[in-house]
Amino acid sequence: MDEWIEALADLRRLGEPCVLVTLVDELGSTPRNRGTKMLVTAERAVNTIGGGHLEFQALAIAREMLQQEAATLRLERFPLAARLGQCCGGTTSVLFEPLIPPRPQIALFGAGHVGRALVNILATLPYRVRWVDGRAAEFPALLPAGVQQNVCEEPLEIVDAMPPGSYFIVMTHDHALDLALAERILRRGDAGYFGLIGSLTKRKRFEYKLGQRGISEAAIAGMRCPLGLPDVKGKLPAEIAVAVAAEIIACYGQR
User: Which end of the chain is more exposed for a tag (fewer CB within 10 A), N or C?
Assistant: First the structure.
């Protein structure tokens, strides 16, 4: 009955939120003993606290906490006969412990000088990073911890695969690819952040081309280009990376 331990390790690796449900007290006849645990995500449950109405109610409470992104512990007392109509007839207390708060997922397109500088900063922050480039030789031999490398000739598929609210950073070596990525990201309409490397001149050119492709002005207005906090000056890769990371942190803080 310790499958939840391995499942929790997998969820930590994936950055997926969950609630650990624990029977912390028992009085009289109960379906499971004190210390029994069940791990609950939005889509599944690992282990059982005894089934029946008790487990049904526990699952509902845990998923309500996930939906509300609750961050505090919750203790519920269940008289099994009086409240839930279970034949056990005892009473049990259940602790709901939210774990692994959701982390922003970032898709970083481009493994050039700025991309390499930026990914080293992002890896130190509580984000999940997918680093995408079609040129395998551009990636360093050793990736920062927590960064997933994608050598991908079809990066638009990565855009489609990212969950709602993801952060997108586009800084590839190819303006045509930048434009295709920008169009795909803006058509989604659900990015938590979208930054495109480039000057004001590049932005104007992209605004025109994206408008021709049917992207609305309101959608284009959400594209940050030039990207990075303007107060952080400098043109060196490390300086640009700091400015971009600062903007992402500020954006996440506002959300």
Answer: C
